[in-house]
Amino acid sequence: MVLGILTAIAACPAIIGTTEAVRQGQRQNAREKHRGLKTNLIANCSTISRAGREINGCQIVLSDGKLYLAVPSDEFPDGCPDDHPFAGYFLPYPDQNWGRRGEGMVSTISDDPPQLNWIYVDRDTCEVKYGDRVTSEPHIIGPWSVTPMDRRVTLEDWEGFMAVKYGPGEWALYFDLDDNGLRGVVDDQMMRVEVELVRKERKVERTAPEPKADPEGEAEKHDDDE
Fold first, then answer.
1. Domain tally, the chain
2. Which stretches of 64-151 are assigned E, i.e. beta strand?
3. pTM (predicted TM-score)
């Protein structure tokens, strides 16, 4: 009896270690799965100001090489129809290895034909843009990742995203590289709002049902063939 208790006690660390390893593997698998899912992006911000209330909850869209916030208007309640909603995921950037810090990030830029581009930040203008590898490589291409709990998007290990107002209902997405409110980068008169980027699971569309087999029709066809 004593020997059995001693054996069980000796085995406990191994059991705990195995259980923890399994849990770590499950967490890793879940992490990799969510990073590879194609998601939309939503901009969230404080709603204390009028500007914040205008853009909070807006979807991120792609247009003319840059990322914008799809702000509803009287003309386009659902956003401009020419804009392409961000629909992207994390993907290793060629010849780059940031380890656990993150990866590159891509988004579709069209549905037909389906085409992907890299998401990057322009080193000179701090604008968040999209383009092919040749276009993106000289700029800041990553590492892109997410916060541990809420999975808000990060770049280079922090959240520095800002929305800059170009005109009525037109807000572009920027990244505050120097963490100074984009001072010296955009005109001082241009309105700026700090935003958080939240990945949102895309709506699951109904798929067309598979055509059902018709045994009787098959039998009739078989009889006719005979």
1. 1
2. 66-70, 84-85, 88-91, 104-111, 114-121, 128-131, 144-146
3. 0.77
